């Protein structure tokens, strides 16, 4: 049974940090590219960061400006999103997606709220 479970969200003050985790099971994690998305209230879901299967290639949304870092541990079937210097505009539900070819799995999301 495929499972993708995000954790680590919460309430943090502006300028603070959070580390999100996404634990996967039920598929061969190391063969899937992983991506973090977010959806703010009233807005469309947007890509935040992605990482290749081996972790050697990462891409980020332009406005992240080096504040976020995506990484993965294939031995633990987990992908991370380290978020530093958080801003109120980072407030959103953060989702994790696994993708390989036509196969795509989403988690249920974890909520991040940044207070000013």
Task: Report on the architecture of this protein.
By secondary structure, this protein is mainly β. Helices cover 0% and strands 55% of the residues. It is built from no helices and 11 strands. The strands form 2 sheets. Strands 2, 4, 5, 6, 9, 10 and 11 form a 7-stranded mixed β-sheet that branches. Strands 1-3-8-7 form a 4-stranded antiparallel β-sheet, with no helix packed on it. The protein is globular. The model has no long low-confidence stretch (mean pLDDT 97).
Entry summary:
The chain is 0% helix and 55% strand.
Instruction: Provide the structure class.
Output: mainly beta
Number of strands: 11
Poorly predicted runs of 5 or more residues: none
What is the radius of gyration? 13 Å
**What's the number of helices?**
0
Main sheet properties: 7 strands, mixed
Distance between the amino and carboxyl termini: 40 Å
Please tell me what the overall shape is. globular
Task: Give the % helix.
Answer: under 10%
Average of per-residue pLDDT values: 97
H/E element string? EEEEEEEEEEE
Strand percentage, roughly? Answer: over 45%
Key features?
single chain; 116 residues; mainly beta; 7-stranded mixed sheet; 4-stranded antiparallel sheet; 11 strands; 55% strand; globular
Strand and helix layout:
Blueprint: E1 3-7, E2 10-13, E3 18-25, E4 33-39, E5 46-51, E6 58-60, E7 68-73, E8 78-83, E9 92-100, E10 103-106, E11 110-115
Parallel strand pairs: 2-11
Antiparallel strand pairs: 1-3, 3-8, 4-5, 4-9, 5-6, 7-8, 9-10, 9-11
């Amino acid at each position: 049974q495929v499972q993708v479970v995000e954790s680590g969200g919460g309430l943090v003050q502006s300028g603070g940090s959070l580390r999100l985790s996404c634990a996967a099971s039920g598929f061969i994690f190391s063969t899937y590219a992983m991506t973090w998305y977010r959806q703010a209230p009233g807005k469309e879901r947007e890509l935040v960061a992605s990482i290749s299967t081996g972790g050697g290639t990462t891409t980020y949304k332009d406005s992240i400006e080096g504040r976020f870092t995506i990484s993965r541990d294939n031995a633990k079937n987990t992908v991370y999103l380290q978020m530093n210097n958080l801003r109120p505009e980072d407030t959103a539900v953060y989702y994790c997606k696994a993708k390989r070819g036509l196969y795509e799995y989403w988690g249920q999301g974890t909520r991040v709220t940044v207070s000013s």
